[in-house]
Amino acid sequence: MDSPDVIVVGAGIIGCAVARELARRRLRVLVLDRQEPGKEASWAAAGMLTPAAESAEALPLVPFAKASLALYSEFIEQIEQTTGRSTDYRREGALEVFFGEGAEERRAEWLATVRATGFEPEPLSAADLRRMEPALAADAAAGALLADEGAVDNRLLSAAVAEAARREGVEIRAGVEVTRILSTGGRAAGVETRQERHAAKHVVVAAGSFTSQIEGAERYAPTIPARGQMAALRPVSMPVRRVVRGPAYLVPRADGRLLVGATVEHVGFEKAVTPGGIGRLLTDAVRMIPALAGAHIVETWSGLRPDTPDHLPVLGPTDVEGLWFATGHFRNGILLAPATARALGEWIAEGKTKMAVEPFSAMRFVNRAKSVAR
To answer: Is the pTM of the predicted complex or chain greater than 0.70?
Structure first.
């Protein structure tokens, strides 16, 4: 490739989706990653597509998450048509299930929170739950259906997005660790790796939890890793049709596996699987679906989600002209890939974006540090 217009640092689903979007806008794009594309958080996720807020801290994310879910079917169609690859994309809804004593009260609290953000889940009785998912435990006493939610096989999708980016002309180089952002005269000039320098007018940092280890990026995106442990079971027959959330979450796959997730642990860059973490997940899974006690454990793994101090993404331009961020997506990288790609594509190619991204400014941590210093 001739000197690129844009260097994207990071080849996870976010980096490759952004790169593909930019290439479709006739920009020359080079993607650099410290390892194989899509083999960090994108590979380790469960692929749930749920825009509802998991906590009060996530409320600012809801409009952007809704917008991204609205883009998903078109995004998947384009990726699958371009590559000829299936991504096991499903929109069969998701069940939120409450077990045991006090289930209806806990559901009422949950419904109030979810409805306050504009969602209208359908309340379900114990009989409704058993009709929809007969394998649920006998004390599944109350629940709700979020009909528009779904899931995608994140491993298949990440590989397909990287391939789609290549077919649009993006060059992806694996095993290239970016160590520093280069700038001169207040504007981006490229990046420095452990081997050499690469020049470009625009740099998009999409390096996930490793962003804060890149010199020149850490002040904008002080990311930290949040380890998530998961397991995959192979039951004799698939016990659920759709995503089911309770003490754990269960995500069925077309290949007969059932994913069980996930822990959230701030233990640094220690990507490990522990008896305590996996043990809790399996206990919770059997609590929800007793028949899983006889399922085979076919895989266990962990990944490092890119968390930030306020648990929100870092998106958009900085005070260095041509330096952009698309990182810190925490537990929502798979869901937010289409909207993030659209926002960065509009910003870089058109100078502004129509996406609702104000809470995620790439300048917010810099500005807060300046305010504290005063």
So the answer is: yes
Sorted by where each starts, the structural domains of the chain and their CATH numbers stand as 6-83+154-223+309-373 (3.50.50.60), 94-147 (no CATH), 224-307 (3.30.9.10)
CB atoms within 10 A of CB 174: 14
- Give residue 137's identity as a one-letter amino acid code: A
Residue-wise pLDDT tens for the chain (374 aa)? 678 999 999 999 999 999 999 999 999 999 999 999 999 999 999 999 999 877 777 889 999 999 999 999 999 999 999 999 999 999 999 999 999 999 999 999 999 989 988 899 999 999 999 999 999 999 999 999 999 999 999 999 999 999 999 999 999 999 999 999 999 999 999 999 999 999 999 999 999 999 999 999 999 999 999 999 999 999 999 999 999 999 999 999 999 999 999 999 999 999 999 999 999 999 999 999 999 999 999 999 999 999 999 999 999 999 999 999 999 999 999 999 999 999 999 999 999 999 999 999 999 999 987 777 66
